[in-house]
Specification:
- With 437 residues, the chain is of the alpha/beta class.
- It folds into two domains: 273 residues, FAD/NAD(P)-binding domain; 151 residues, Elongation Factor Tu (Ef-tu), domain 3 (Beta Barrel), CATH 2.40.30.
- 31% of the residues lie in helices and 16% in strands.
- It is built from eleven helices and 16 strands.
- Helix 2 runs parallel beside helix 11.
- The protein is globular.
Length: 437
């Protein structure tokens, strides 16, 4: 008989299933693909990356870089597959999204302890259940979850994905390869714009037709994924201080810093596809083609995928979930991934891994691991379970939620370096104690 049911084969669900299975626990993994897909999915593979192909910084003195290192130490499946399918992206960890999802799927399917059930979960099964249905949880399952927490309804915000173009259609006579401040390899294609081009581009962005999305408001967008047209409406220079920031991207042809720069990041290992960095959007497809083709280097661009917008659903987790991601009023039910209010690929993976580790220890009669809020993975669990938060919003990992040092350190970089070293030391110590046992 299966010991644990995991609903959803996204990043968190696959990580949870894998961690349980490698500890000898039988897992029933329920995934509705290929029978049914959400509006954001295009592949039948597991762990599909529907927005960016970047897992963000890989530098351990950055909070998400630290979280990646913690996950690697803890044997994360998602990190193993990401490292195996990475593409050049400077100091960021970006992956070939097709190869990545394919590899995760192969790993999950190869496990003798994971039984995959292709069906849509419309109810919550008996026994221990990890709900990892992500931000696009179906209406049927959402209603069942709401029945468990009648006084705390599910919340939502809007998220968006950026367009992808073919490399051969980029006008490289109007672009150049470079990394910001020439740090690392020149892995990004930079598309410069002068002031006149930028002003015209912004004007068309603001007047372009948007796709119909019921109930959408600008203030319901997660700040890390604000559509480019929303940024354009805020102020004339907002985009130039955001995704079109030219600082540190000197044009080798002119020797000067452009007025604005659109960056393109490799989307697959072959380098045949590039995505528009920071260009999440909910413009109609024809308008995306028209307006984005105003960027000089993209005047003849071939769009293989246009930007899309979708609703993300999440729990008002503080007071509902504990630091092991268990439902406080019904602990046999646990949650992992973006539905808990963690935001981002790596953060979703971390919640899935921690939830599975603690579930496995519980099933074996062991004491739960105390990651503490001095680690990134523990700080995330602490954030979503912090009952003092009155206006809970999805959040990426950051050093602001990590427990501070007990002494002063001069300089942000030095402080973050010490925070990272302390966190990794705690993780290594936990693993060493486990080996001794």
């Amino acid at each position: 008989m299966d010991n644990v049911t995991v609903i959803g084969a996204g990043l968190a669900g696959c990580e949870s299933a894998w961690q349980l299975a490698r500890r000898g626990i039988k897992v029933r993994l329920i995934e509705m693909k290929p029978l049914k897909r959400t509006p954001a999915h295009i592949s039948d593979n597991f762990a599909e990356l529907v927005c960016s192909n970047s897992l963000r910084s890989d530098d351990p003195i950055n909070a998400v870089g630290l979280l990646k290192e913690e996950l690697r130490l803890l044997g994360s499946l998602i990190m193993e597959c990401a490292d195996a399918t990475r593409v050049k992206a400077g100091k960021a960890l970006a992956v070939d999204r097709i190869a990545f999802s394919r590899l995760v799927t192969e790993k999950i399917r190869s496990s003798i302890n994971i039984n995959i059930e292709c069906s849509e979960a419309i109810s919550i099964p008996d026994g221990i259940v990890i709900i990892a249905t992500g931000p696009l949880t179906s209406d049927a399952l959402s209603s069942k979850i709401t029945e468990l927490i009648p006084n705390a309804s599910l919340l939502h915000f809007f998220d968006a994905a950026a367009p992808i173009v073919t490399h051969e259609s980029i006008d490289l006579t109007s672009a150049y390869y470079a990394s910001r401040y020439d740090r690392g390899d020149a892995d990004y294609i930079n598309c410069p714009m002068d002031k006149e081009q930028y002003i015209a581009f912004r004007s068309e962005l603001m007047r372009a037709d948007q796709a119909e999305i019921h109930g959408f408001e600008d203030n319901e967008v997660f700040e890390g994924c604000v559509p480019i047209e929303v940024l354009a409406r805020r102020a004339e220079d907002t985009m130039r201080y955001g995704p079109l920031k030219p600082v540190g991207l000197r044009d080798p042809l002119t020797g000067r810093q452009p007025y604005a720069v659109v960056q393109l990041r490799r989307d697959n290992s072959e380098g045949s596809l590039y995505n528009l960095v920071g260009f999440q959007t909910h413009l109609t497809f024809p308008e995306q083609r028209r307006v984005f083709s105003m960027i000089p280097a993209l005047r003849n661009a071939e769009f293989v995928r246009f930007g899309v917008m979708h609703r993300n659903t999440y729990l008002n987790s503080p007071g509902l979930l504990d630091e092991a991601y268990r439902l406080i009023t019904n602990p046999r039910i646990r949650f992992s991934g973006q539905i808990t209010g963690v935001e981002g690929y790596v953060e979703s993976t971390a919640s899935g891994l921690l939830c599975a580790l603690q579930t496995a220890r519980e099933l074996s009669g062991k004491k739960l691991l105390d990651f503490t809020r001095k680690t990134a993975i523990g700080a995330l669990a602490g954030y979503i379970s912090n009952e003092t938060i009155t206006n809970f919003q999805p959040m990426n990992v950051n050093f602001g939620i990590v427990e501070t040092l007990d002494h002063k350190v001069s300089g942000k970089k030095n402080r973050n370096s010490e925070l990272s070293a302390r966190a990794l030391g705690i993780i290594k110590a936990l693993l060493d104690r486990e080996k001794e046992v």
